[in-house]
Amino acid sequence: MSSSPAVEIDGLVKRYGGRTAVAGLSLVVSPGAITAVLGPNGAGKTTTVECCEGYRRPDGGSVRVLGLDPHRDARELRPRVGVMLQEGAGLYPGARPRELLTHLARMYAHPLETGQLIEWLGLHDAERTPVRRLSGGERQRLALACALVGRPELVFLDEPTSGVDPAMRRSIWDLLSQLRADGVTVVLTTHLIDEAERIADQVAIIDDGRLVATGSPAELTSSDESTVQFTGPPRLNLSTLGDALPPDAVVRETAPGRYLVAGTVNPQLLATVASWCAAHDVLPEELQIGRRSLEDVFLELTGRRHA
């Protein structure tokens, strides 16, 4: 396997009219690894990947995919790269899964076996159903199969597990892990932070068109900080608790009635939280002490909930 980057983005800029969607973003994707791209809606992650796929032309900076330019070298790259668009876009509405995969397989020198893909992705009950009549989850799985049928060296996946049930999500995770074991480079955008934490070797967090953090899930969550989480009545006034905590600690309501204190967790901090709850007649249910999660990191860097 080559040691050269599978994808190398340097100072990428992409504008739509007067709006800058990607603002000087740089990122290197390692070969034979799974890289998850996270970001709030509108952060620029899909535009960044579309520039790598050759669907968008950069307004500035450079993009190299497998050492080639996605536009100038599109003909050479096409047999080597698989692409899955969001929500099964690009599938022929009247085609049936088996005939579509069989047709695509004929375009490649060494395709994967169509029946094997259908079995892997649970499409056997829908293999003769027209695409327009497939459920959202079935279209997602078919789009993934179309991206993989050519046995690509690199695959771009846009929300690959969106709309699928938990059992199939885990099956797709297993399939992506097998691709990695076979030396395939996987780049995926996802709204599921637990998905990125579970399967990704590298996570890139994008916000406002810029790369704000990159590293393995362990590297991004590595910190002396821990967390205290508890539930209680929603919309508590946390200002007095924040004032009572040490300077390095922060408190926020992560969801209605769910609270998180992040900082150096020790007996004194825990006692401060408990005393504040007692003074405000709050029974802290489901109180847990744990390490900082990837979601905590995401919230700290973007200031927004993942949506």
TrEMBL record:
Q: What SUPFAM superfamilies does this protein's entry cite?
A: P-loop containing nucleoside triphosphate hydrolases
List, alphabetically, the Pfam families matched: ABC_tran (PF00005)
Q: Which GO terms describe its biological process?
A: response to antibiotic
SMART domains per the UniProt record, alphabetical: AAA (SM00382)
Question: CDD domains this protein is in?
Answer: ABC_DR_subfamily_A
Q: What is this protein called?
A: ABC transporter ATP-binding protein
Return one GO MF term: ATP hydrolysis activity
- Whether Nuclease counts among this entry's keywords is no
Subcellular location(s): the record lists:
Cell membrane
Q: Which residues form the ABC transporter domain?
A: 7-233
Record-level GO cellular component terms: plasma membrane
Q: Can the keyword Magnesium be found in this entry's annotation? A: no
Against PROSITE patterns, the record matches this protein to:
ABC_TRANSPORTER_1, ABC_TRANSPORTER_2
Q: How does it sit in the membrane?
A: Peripheral membrane protein
Q: Which UniProt keywords apply?
A: Antibiotic resistance, ATP-binding, Cell membrane, Membrane, Nucleotide-binding, Translocase, Transport
